[in-house]
Amino acid sequence: MTALRTLLLAACCVPMIASADAGRLLATGGATGIEGAAGGGITPWAVLAGYGERGEWGGDVFATRVETGDYRLDVAGVAFAFDNRLELSFARQRFDLGNLARDLSLPENSLSQDIFGIKLRLFGDLLYDRLPQVSLGAQHKRQKDFLIPSLIGAQRDEDTEAYLTASRLILGGAFGYNLLLNGGVRYSRANELGLLGFGGDRRDSRSLLKEGSAAVLFNPNWVLGVEYREKPDNLSFAGESDWADLFLGYFPNKRLAVVLAYARLGEIATLDNQDGAYLSVQGSF
Description:
Blueprint: H1 2-13, E1 16-17, E2 31-32, E3 38-39, E4 56-67, E5 72-82, E6 86-96, H2 98-104, E7 110-123, E8 133-143, H3 147-151, E9 158-174, E10 177-188, E11 207-219, E12 222-229, E13 243-253, E14 256-264, E15 275-284
Parallel strand pairs: 1-4
Antiparallel strand pairs: 2-3, 4-5, 4-15, 5-6, 6-7, 7-8, 8-9, 9-10, 10-11, 11-12, 12-13, 13-14, 14-15
């Protein structure tokens, strides 16, 4: 009896792995952004990865491609969350310079970086609390191909930035459909997310940048929304445009999410009108 009691006690103390069929409502874990945090494609939300509730683990793996007329960005990563409170993430980005590398005979034809993220839910809840869900996050970014960024004026090859974001799901908030609203601020000096280094010859201090999104859940499986992200402008080499997108998310179940978007990225590294397609596939556990 003593041995049995010990085993039962130990089992009760082990954190649960959330079943993808249990936990939070479908789509409330969001997708995974291009920097690895849970939320939208270009902006994080206050939600955490996966569908785990209190005392449970959850998470996801993802792969994303963004294709414009001159560039291609490939991202892959993983995120874990525990207790619906803390999220840890990792993403690796590879930015293919395409036409720019060929036209300028650049020494590298791609740039890459690693992003290590942490997000903490401070208070509130996406749906069940009077207050919106509010989370504080930080991302440490490490640029892996610094030669080109250094030549155009970037000051450092790694940096840490912070963001604060709030999210709320309003039942019936859009003509009877559920409405998700998200808004946040970011404190950063990353040039093009950090792919062109951090800080510049024009400005080397961090800037307070706005970002946000809104999405309509037409039913539990389909989400249509828009996102906006303000960008710094640290380099005299080229302007840096704010980003926006229109996205469609499909959540057939809690194990799979597919997001397709039209992204307006503006000027990137001297080339204008970098608009194109965004595709992301996520598996949750």
